[in-house]
Amino acid sequence: MKFPTDLPIWQKLIDDHTETKHEHLRDVFAKDPQRAERYWLEVGGISVDYSKNRINDTIMADLVQLARDTGVPERMKQMFQGEKINVTEERAALHIALRNRANTPIYVDNQNVMPKINQVLQQMADFAQQVRDGQWKGYTNQAITDIINIGIGGSNLGPRMMCTALRPFGHQRLRMHFVSNVDDAQLQDTLAKVQPETTLFIIASKTFTTQETITNALAAREWFLKTASQADIAKHFVAVSSNQQAVVEFGINPTHMFEFWDWVGGRYSLWSAIGLPIMLYLGEEQFIEMLEGAHLMDQHFINTPLTHNLPVTLALLGVWYNNFYNGKSHVIAPYDEHLHHLPRFIQQLDMESNGKSIQLDGKATNTFTCPIIWGETGSNGQHAFFQLLHQGTHIIPIDMIVSLEKSRHSNQHNILVANVFAQAEAFMRGKTAEEAEAELRAQGLPEQRIAQLVPHKTFSGNRPSNMILMQKINPKNMGTLIAMYEHKVFVQGIIWGINSFDQWGVELGKQLAQTILSEFNDNTEQPHDSSTSRLIKRYKHFIKQTQEQKHQ
Ligand code: G6Q
User: Fold this and answer.
1) Which end of the chain has the least Cβ crowding within 10 Å, N or C?
2) Rounded CA gap, 350 and 358, in Å?
3) Concatenated DSSP letters of 388-413
4) Domain contains 395
5) What is the per-residue DSSP string for 77-89?
6) Comparing C-alpha atoms, which of 258, 286, 236, 263 is closest to residue 124?
7) Does 339 share its domain with 267?
8) Is residue 379 domain-shared with residue 333, that is, in the same domain?
């Protein structure tokens, strides 16, 4: 397998960078009035203005060539055909099947996966309807009012992000809660808000062995059994998993289990039964709309030439900064309070998928892979870290996401939209020393003060951004948006030659935690480095002291 850097097109892109790196976007815009029109793509309710990037037609054509030369079109096809592209786990990556609204057959191991997908969807819809209508009763014959999803990572972030994003579309009676952290505080804080007789617990774990989830689930069951009986569990606990045996061992009836499969990666699973909280909150019709929105993006992705392909374009822009501009991080800034979980969702999607340094052939990569993804809602971010984005020493590309339409149009929304557009403009154009000087002079400041302040009041500009406009935040457009990011991540993984669908990097810490936990429980000592040993001793000493104090 070749390194991408060995391809002639990589060298051509280095030359493109050398030739254009001193061009300023301000001048580029001034020379080219059609630029905004040309660098604009729309899919469904999503429009992306990517004109404020440090690109030109040659660079874009060369980046597309890079995608071709690294085999992007072939790998895309393989994914859609259900091939086992997750080679280290010998699995397909078929989140596209979960939202395949055309219902065309998709085969894994010669078996069409569509019938079982549709069957679980129906099971979810039937259950959701009963809970939403109030026909599903708790042990005191009352309707469910609170739903607690216990799951972590991919079994938490997606449903949580979607339920928050789509709050205006949610069921009026249902309050959604998410418990992920093994820190007892999160479960206890949540339980303090609910009553056992009207609470439904969803234990969401693909493996059903995840320490945090099973520990929290057992604690929730214990809390529940303080007031209810064992037989009542059936009305209050359901499971989402691919491990039926473990679900049954936990005490959940298999008829209350919603299945998904090994070819659904955790961070790509919100479209599967892991999306049960979303189905409960939104109802069948709107959940299907979300799937339709994602399917729309899937169809665009697989059928559109690379040159006009939205996820491919975003992926290539990311590669451009990451590998040719030495930009090591990428900001996600949704200008919408309901999207406040989006940055952390995309953080997992991107960093767990592409935070790798080994190619598919087992060789170490020789170029940078996934950037660090971080972010916060605008306009909050503007009053916190945007300083660094405007005047810091790093060039950090930013995706700004805003919806045109709001369920309640207010003056606040005008302010928000004005701010997001202004930020993108400011990142692009900056403020020259001459402009800063003229402003200060207009304020009547003495010459010496002006000279002192000008460097501080100057903005270099030329800082890239994508403006992602959503017509409205609704189930369909959210589906389209998330599928767009999923495919962007996939394309970047192909270009870097890595497997975006495994996550071995999370294993080592889990293994070591087991050893340390056993040392706490059995009061034994295992060999560690002096730092870890000292930390363990310190904690044990603290526990011992607390126990002794209790007994005094
Ligand atoms: C996601 C990861 C990871 C996973 C969690 C929870 O892609 O695989 O975040 O979702 O570790 O795993 P379980 O669902 O098996 O509990």
Assistant:
1) C
2) 16
3) HHHHSSS---EEEEEEEE-SS--HHH
4) yes
5) HHHHTT---BTTT
6) 258
7) no
8) yes
Ligand 1 neighbour 205 (Cβ under 6 A)? yes
5 contacts: CB under 8 Å, gap ≥ 6: 366, 367
- Which segment of 247-256, 276-285, 465-474, 481-490 scores lowest on mean pLDDT? 247-256
Instruction: Give me the catalytic one of 212, 259, 289, 352.
Output: 352
Query: Quick check: is 293 in a domain?
Result: no
Q: Is the CB of 423 under 6 A from ligand 1?
A: no
Q: Examine the domain organization and report whether 420 and 468 are in the same domain.
A: yes
The dihedrals phi and psi of 287, each to the nearest 5 degrees, come to: -65, -40
Q: Is the CB of 199 under 6 A from ligand 1?
A: no
Give the length of the chain. Answer: 552
Tokens matching residue 550: 């209790």
Which pTM was predicted? Answer: 0.97
CB 53 within 8 A of CB 39: yes
Taking only the tens place, the pLDDT of each residue in 387-432 is 999 999 999 999 999 999 987 778 999 999 999 999 999 999 999 9
Tell me the C-alpha distance between 81 and 488, whole Å: 18
Domain membership of residue 295 (yes or no) is: no
Residue nearest to atom 1 of ligand 1 (CA): 266
Which of the listed residues 287, 318, 353 is the one where a domain comes to its end? 287
In a domain, 454, yes or no: no
- Residue by residue, DSSP assigns 396-465 as --EEEEEEEE-SS--HHHHHHHHHHHHHHHHHHH-B-HHHHHHHHHHTT--HHHHHHHHHHH-B-----E
Q: What is the CATH number of the domain that holds 192?
A: 3.40.50.10490
> Are residues 513 and 493 part of one domain?
no
CA angle 25, 27, 28 (to 5 degrees): 60
Label residue 215 by pLDDT band (50, 70, 90): very high
Same domain, 111 and 248: yes
Phi, psi of 424 (to 5 degrees): -65, -40
Active-site annotation holder among 21, 77, 363, 383: 383
Contacts of 539 (CB under 8 A, 6+ apart): 520
Report helix angle 57-69 to 310-319, nearest 10: 100
Domain that holds residue 227: 107-287
Q: 107 Cβ partners below 8 Å, 6+ apart?
A: 81, 82, 113
